[in-house]
Amino acid sequence: MAKLIIFSAPSGAGKSTLVRYLLSQGLRIQFSVSATSRQPRGEEKDGVEYYFLTPEEFRKRIANNEFLEYEEVYTNTYYGTLKSEVDRILAEGTHVIFDVDCVGGLNIKKIYGEQALSIFVMPPSVEVLRERLEKRATDTPQVIESRLAKAEYEMSFAPQFDVTVFNDDYDRAKGEVLRLVSDFIQQ
Length: 187
Ligand code: ADP
Ligand code: 5GP
Known about the structure:
Strand order of the largest sheet: 2-7-1-8-9
CATH topology of the domain at 4-34 and 90-186: Rossmann fold
CATH architecture of the domain at 4-34 and 90-186: 3-Layer(aba) Sandwich
Shape: globular
Mean pLDDT: 95
Strand content: 15-25%
Distance between the termini: 9 Å
Low-confidence stretches: none
Structural class: alpha/beta
Radius of gyration: 16 Å
Bound molecules: adenosine-5'-diphosphate, guanosine-5'-monophosphate
Helix content: 40-55%
Largest sheet: 5 strands, parallel
Order of helices and strands: EHEEEHEEHEHEHHEH
């Protein structure tokens, strides 16, 4: 049966990096492209990292009941998982992987139960998060502050996830997620 793998963490903890690594491992997994009303950053392309929508388009889709879940993750910035995206991937018999905020991750887990594995990526500390976000250099100082302000609150969700992976050393964390996900999709 096709499975769902959910990655959640505070911004900068390293979930996109770990998700990208898993997608390169030939595991028959596709990434669930979320919709967002934020602007593309860096090299991001519409339909690849996200479906980039205006806030008005996003609200229209909410009204049309097109989302499996959505959150206003930061003020005026919406993110959501489209039902059509998940249904399409599962219908292909492929596993699906999500990079979503903690509340969204727990909501997806609630909907799919045992068919889903929820993974929380824990950063070593908020200070390290700051360093990673500054080094990634994709967000303005103001955006970085709003992400850090939320980090501690998000870390309090960890116990509600099926597993917590500490992303201190990247190579170790990579090995751990590969083992966890391979075992889960083979069950
Ligand atoms: P998220 O998707 O959780 O916001 P990213 O995957 O974009 O986080 O990672 C944030 C930054 O930290 C990136 O520049 C990434 O290369 C770096 N990074 C990720 N994991 C580690 C790690 N274990 N050690 C050091 N830097 C890391
Ligand atoms: P970013 O702007 O760094 O790409 O993402 C910001 C936050 O929004 C991250 O925690 C990311 O996981 C989350 N996010 C991305 N897509 C979704 C989604 O579809 N639903 C929810 N609830 N959160 C999402």
